[in-house]
Design a protein that fits this description.
Elements: E1 2-4, H1 14-26, E2 33-36, H2 40-50, E3 56-60, H3 68-77, E4 80-84, H4 97-106, H5 110-121, E5 124-125, H6 132-139, H7 148-155
Parallel strand pairs: 1-2, 2-3, 3-4, 4-5
C-alpha cells in the first residue's frame, strides 16, 4: 500500500502525486493506494479530477481527537479510516482516570482499551512500539468488547483542540 502523506494545500499539488499512485497501480507496481491527513474536500477533488477515490485515509485519531465527522464521511464514501497515533503518542491519555477505570473493569491496560475503542469505531489503529512486550499487549485486544457506555465515555474525551501538534490538514504543510 502506498499513501500520499499530506495534501499540503498551500502547494495544491497533491492531485499530481495521486495520479502517480494511480499510474503505478495500473502498471502493477503496487496493489493498493490511499491518502493520509486528507479532508473531504481534498478527496472530493481527487475523485473529481482523476475518477479514483482512495480506499483508505490515515488520519490522526485518538480519544482526545475522535474525528467523528471525518469518520462518518469516510463510512459514507466507502473509505477505510486508519488511525495514526492511536494512543496519542502515549501522552497524558495513558494516565486518564476514566480510561483507567474502564481498563480495570475489563482487566486490560489503558492502551488495550484505547486500541479496542478504535476497532469498535471501525478504524484500523497502527500503534508504534519497539518493545516486544508492548507489541504483544497491542495485539491482545480481540478477546473483549467495550460496552456502549464505555464507548461513549471514551468518545466524550475528545476536544476541539485535541490534535497532538495542531497539524490541521486544511493549512499544515509537511515539508
Amino acid at each position: 500500500m502506498y499513501l500520499v502523506h499530506w495534501p499540503n494545500p498551500k502547494q495544491g499539488r497533491y492531485r499530481e502525486a495521486w495520479q502517480a499512485l494511480i499510474d503505478a497501480k495500473k502498471w502493477g507496481l503496487i496493489r493498493s493506494i490511499g491518502v493520509c491527513n486528507f479532508l473531504p474536500e481534498h478527496i472530493e477533488r481527487l475523485e473529481r479530477e482523476t475518477g479514483v477515490k482512495p480506499g483508505i485515509n490515515q488520519i490522526e485519531l485518538h480519544p482526545a481527537f475522535n474525528q467523528q465527522q471525518q469518520r462518518q464521511w469516510h463510512e459514507e464514501q466507502g473509505i477505510v479510516t486508519e488511525s495514526w497515533s492511536p494512543l496519542s503518542r502515549a501522552g497524558e491519555v495513558l494516565n486518564d482516570q476514566k480510561l483507567g477505570q474502564i481498563a480495570d473493569k475489563y482487566g486490560k491496560t489503558i492502551s488495550q482499551v484505547i486500541l479496542r475503542w478504535h476497532i469498535q469505531l471501525g478504524a484500523i489503529p497502527i500503534p508504534k512500539s519497539a518493545s516486544p512486550e508492548r507489541q504483544l499487549e497491542n495485539i491482545s485486544v480481540f478477546d473483549f468488547s467495550l460496552d456502549e457506555n464505555d464507548m461513549k465515555i471514551i468518545d466524550s474525551l475528545t476536544r476541539p483542540d485535541g490534535r497532538i501538534n495542531g497539524q490541521d490538514p486544511a493549512e499544515y504543510e509537511e515539508f
